[in-house]
Amino acid sequence: MSFLDISNVSKSFANAAVVNRVSLEVARGEFFALLGPSGCGKTTLLRMIAGFETPDSGSISIDGETMTDVPPHLRPTNMVFQSYAIFPHLNVFDNIAYGLRKEGLSKQGLRAKVQAMLETVRLEGLEGRAPDQLSGGQRQRVALARALVREPKLLLLDEPLGALDKRLREAMQVELRALQRKVGITFLLVTHDQQEALSLCDRIAVMDQGRILQIAGPRELYEHPNCRAVADFIGEINFFHASVRQIDQTTVTVNAGLLGTLTLPRSNLAPGIGLHDHILLAIRPEHIGFVDPLKGMLTGEIVDANFLGERSLFHIRIAGRNQPIAVSSSATPPASSVHLAFPSEFLVGLSSD
Amino acid sequence: MKNRGLLIYALAYLAFLYVPVLVLPIFSFNNSEFIAFPLSGFTTRWYQSLMDDSAMQHALGNSLKVGSITALLATGLGLTAAKALTRNRLRGGSAALGFISLPLFIPDIVLGLSLLMVLGWVGLPLSLAAVVLGHLLICLPFALTVLIARFEGFDPNLEEASADLGEDGWMTFWRVTFPLMLPGISASLLLTFITSFDEFLVAYFLSGTEATLPVYIWGQLRFPERLPMVLALGAIILTVSVALVALAEYVRNLGIKKATVGA
Predict the structure, then answer these.
(1) For A225-275, how does the pLDDT look when each residue is reduced to its tens digit (9 = 90+)?
(2) pLDDT tens across A147-206, in order?
(3) Touching check for B87 and chain A: CB below 8 Å?
(4) Chains A, B: CB contacts under 8 A, how many?
(5) Is the same domain home to A72 and A205?
(6) Based on the domain organization, do A186 and A317 belong to the same domain?
(7) What mean pLDDT is predicted for residues A7-15?
(8) pLDDT value at position B55?
(9) Does A86 touch chain B if contact means CB atoms closer than 8 Å?
(10) Is B173 in the A-facing interface, judged by CB distances under 8 Å?
(11) Taking the CB of the first residue and of the last residue of chain B, which one, N or C, has fewer CB atoms within 10 A?
(12) By the CB < 8 Å criterion, does A150 face chain B?
C-alpha cells in the first residue's frame, strides 16, 4: 500500500462535480504536484486531504490509516495556505510555536525547537517581528516553518509561491526543493504553474475539470504527454493532423499531410490508438530544427521572432496551414525563408479527441 | 476665494447638527430656573442637586444594570449568529439575517406596545428584566452588523490554519477567533450599551415601577423647577455617550488595521 492513497474520490458543490472519481498514489518522501488550470479541482482535492472538505464518495488514507472520520486537527498533515494565513495577532515566534502547544515541551525545549526551525527556513533574528513587518517571501517562510515544525507525515502546499514575484519565486523554488530533501517529508504541491511543477517535483498529476489526465515524472510528461490537453498545458507545442497507416513491432508509420509519411518509435504513440485512427502529431518548438534546403521537410517564412535571451522563439508560416509553427532555437537563421526538420523521435502521436 | 461658499455650507451644516445639543450644557451651568436668554450667571448648583437626588441615582443604577446585561447578551448572541452566518454555507442564511435585522425597522412604539401585550399574556410582570428583553430585540441587529463586518474582515483560512495546526473548534475560538474579534466585540458591547442606555419608549412601556434613567427624566419634566437639573443630567449623559461611541469607533479601526495583514 502506498503512503498517500486516494481512491475514487468525488466531490460536488451545488450539483457540479468539482472532483470526479480521482485515484492517486503518492510514495513516502516523494515531492508530488497536482497541476492544472484554476477551477480544475486541485485545491478541493488538497482540502479533502487536509480534512477541510469531506469527499462525497471514495476514500483517502495516509500511511495506512483511513482519514474519512478524522477531523482536520487530528490528521497527520499540515498545510501551507495560498494566503499563508499567518496569525496577524501573533509574532513570528508565536506563529511557529502555535501548533506545539499540545507537545508539552518545556520553555527551553520549545524555544530550541522554534529556533532550529527558524534556521531551517532562514528567518533567524526575526522571531520578534509582527506579521505586518514581514515581506511576502518572509511570510511564506513563516507559513512553511509553522507547518514543518509539527513534523507532519505529509505537507500540503496550496500555490505557496503564487503571491511572490518572479525572482523571489525562483529562489524559493530552489529552497523548497532543498528543504524537502533535508526534512524528508512527503510534499504535495498544488500549482497552476507548469514550470514550477516540472522543476520541483518527482511526479506530477495533471488535472482538468475534476479528473486526472496523466500522472508521470516531469520529463515523461513533457516528452510523452498522453493527450492533447496535457500536451497543450505543459509548455508550448505544435500539432499536426495525421492518420495511422501501419503499426509494427517497434515502429509506427503515419501519414501526416504536409509532413508526408513518417515512421516513429511505437513508444511515441499514446496508448489506445489503433490502425487507421485519426491522430494528432505533437512536437515541441525546441525539437524542430532549422536545416539546409536539402534536408528540410517543410519550407516557411518567419513572421515573428521573440528574443528570449539564450533562445529565441520564432513563428513560421507554412503554405497550406493556418496556424504558424512555433520553433525555439539558439541559432538565428540568415534569411526569413527557412527550412524545417521534424526529427521523428520527438514526434508524439496523440488521440485527436 | 473659491472655497468660501463651501466653507460656509460646512459651518452651517455643523451648526445645524450641534448647536441644539450644545444648548443643554450651556443652560445646565446657568444660574436661573428659566431656560431663556440672556444667561444670568454661572453655577454648578444643578449638578450639586443631582448629587443629592437619590431617586435619580437609583434610576441611573437601573439603566447601568439594564445596559450592561443587554450589551453582554446581545453581543454574545450576535457573536454566535455572526459566525454561523459568515462561516457556514447556511441554508436560509440571508433570510435569517433579514429576520434578525427586522427590529431595526419596526418603530419602537410598536415594539413597546406589542411587548407589553405579550408580557401580559405570558404573565410576566413589568420589570427591568422585561426591559432587558425588549432592549435585546433592539440591540441585536446593531451587534450583528458590527460583528458580521468584523468576521468578513478576516481570512477564514486563519481558523482553518488553527485546526490544521492541531487545535479543535473550542481552542481555535479562544486562540484565534476571539483575539481577532476582540475589537469588534468591544465595539459591539459599547454600541449596544449606549443604545440600551439611551432607549426610552420600550423602557417606558416595560419598566413598571423601576424607572430607567430616560424614564425618570421624562417623569421630571412635569416639574418646571427641576428642568435645569435634568439639563445637567442630559449634559453628563451626552458627554459620556459621545466618549463611548468615539472609543468604540477607535477600537474598531484599530482592529481593522490589524486584521488586513494578509499575504
Answers:
(1) 988 889 988 888 999 999 999 988 899 999 988 888 889 998 888 888 888
(2) 999 999 999 999 988 777 888 888 888 888 888 888 889 999 999 998 889 988 999 999
(3) no
(4) 74
(5) yes
(6) no
(7) 91
(8) 85
(9) yes
(10) no
(11) N
(12) yes
- Inter-chain residue contact A77 with B258, CB threshold 8 Å: no
Q: Taking the CA of residue A281 as centre, how many other CA atoms within 13 Å lie in the half-sphere pointing to its CB? A: 29
Residue A207 grid coordinates: 488535472
Q: Does B92 touch chain A (CB under 8 A)?
A: no
Q: Is the pLDDT of residue B263 over 50?
A: no
Tell me: do A241 and A221 sit in the same domain. Answer: no
Q: Residue A134 sits in a domain of what CATH number?
A: 3.40.50.300
- What distances in angstroms separate CA A251 from CA A88, A278, A344, B136, one per listed residue? 61, 17, 11, 82
Per-residue model confidence (pLDDT) at position A131? 92
CB contact under 8 A, A150 and B166: yes
Query: Is B263 in contact with A89 (Cβ distance < 8 A)?
Result: no
Strands (E), chain A: 4-13, 16-26, 31-35, 57-62, 65-66, 77-80, 154-158, 186-191, 203-208, 211-216, 238-247, 251-255, 261-265, 278-283, 289-290, 298-307, 312-318, 325-329, 337-341, 348-351
User: How far is A219 from A8, CA to CA, in rounded Å?
Assistant: 27
Measure in Å the smallest separation between the Cα of A102 and chain B Cα atoms.
8
Q: What is the pTM of this model?
A: 0.79
The total domain count for chain A is: 2
Q: Give yes or no for B225 touching A (CB within 8 A).
A: no
Q: What pLDDT was estimated at residue A44?
A: 94
Cell numbers representing residue A145 in the block? 516553518
Same domain? A255 vs A125: no
Instruction: Measure CB to CB from residue B261 to each of A88, A150, A163 and give the nearest one.
Output: A88
Domain containing residue A297 = 236-351
ipTM metric? 0.82
From the CA of B162, how many Å to the nearest CA of chain A?
8
Nearest chain B residue to A135 by CA distance is: B263
- Please tell me whether residues A156 and A288 are part of one structural domain: no
Question: A222 and A271: one domain?
Answer: no
Domain boundary (A227, A254, A276) is at A227
Helix axes B4-28, B227-259, angle to 10 degrees: 130
Cα(B115)–Cα(B45) distance, integer angstroms:
40
